[in-house]
Description:
The structure is a single chain. The chain is α/β, with parallel strands linked by helices. It has helices spanning 3-15, 18-25, 29-43, 57-83, 97-114, 127-136, 181-184, 197-208, 222-230, 245-248, 281-297; strands at residues 89-95, 118-124, 141-146, 153-161, 163-168, 178-179, 188-191, 214-218, 236-239, 256-261, 267-274, 304-306. The strands form 3 sheets. Strands 2-1-3-11-4-12 form a 6-stranded mixed beta sheet, sandwiched between helices. It has a 4-stranded mixed beta sheet with strand order 6-10-5-9. The chain is globular, with a radius of gyration of 23 Å. The relative contact order is 0.15.
Amino acid sequence: MDLRQLGALVAVADHRSFSAAARSLHTVQSNVSTHVARLERELGVTLVDRATGTLTAEGEAVVSRGRRIQLELEALVADVAAVNSEITGVARVGVIGTTARWLVPPLLEAMAVEYPLVRVVVVDATTTSLLPQVHSGQLDLAVLALPVHDPDVDSDLLFEEELLVIAPLDHPLAAEERVTLAQLAEHDLLLEPPGTAFRDDLDAQASVAGVTLTTKAEVDGMRLVASLAFEGFGAAVLPASAAPRLLANSTGPQTWKIVGVDGLTRRSVGLVRRRRGLPSAPARALTEVLRRTIATEAEHQPGIFGA
């Protein structure tokens, strides 16, 4: 088994055909086919269904390991460069959308100044989408909603944020300055679906208060939930970072209102990394700068409190 064979299989998995994999690797299709066939003979299994171009169960298992090997080799090269005080390479971070809005710009600026040879890749997605990518090694780290129930990752609290309601001006909740969970339960709301950290925590708090929240729509994506509320589709329960500072401080005509909620604990947002494996030098540098950036920027975000 060699790295070319693993690389060929991963390329087939990524591009769904031998011909497309060959183009991505800047080689000919026969080379890709040969590498995959040799790997199959060595392992004694079929890795790719030739009729469909999709991986078999055994192929999925090998690709999962193959990706980790590729990432470890990439980290090895970066760590060797770092020995000579030159941190270079790629660092991949996932960030939930509401936090990315205020965190990513200063983070990228700081990385460009302090570690100009590090290429930062940012993935903007939901917690449910980011966690598997950390687990598989596709991301070095991620900033996402806590708690995270996964024994293969470590998480540290970065900050907490208040929960609030965005209500269109013609919605009954907009007549209030603050509301209770019991008042929220009287209306259909825009919420994330069950199974997301935010929704599960919200439902748990509502249960303690003896009420059940009902939904007008369930959307897995906090920024989209916020957009729907701002556009007047309905009232939404959101973390403070989902209400951009520019809008919150706007003096122009508004079609929505921010309403406080009594009886809700703050949302926790943390840094998540794989428990096993040594982070690469670029990943360690990004982690360091990210922590400092949050410590500096969080205090300027309304409703957000540093850990």
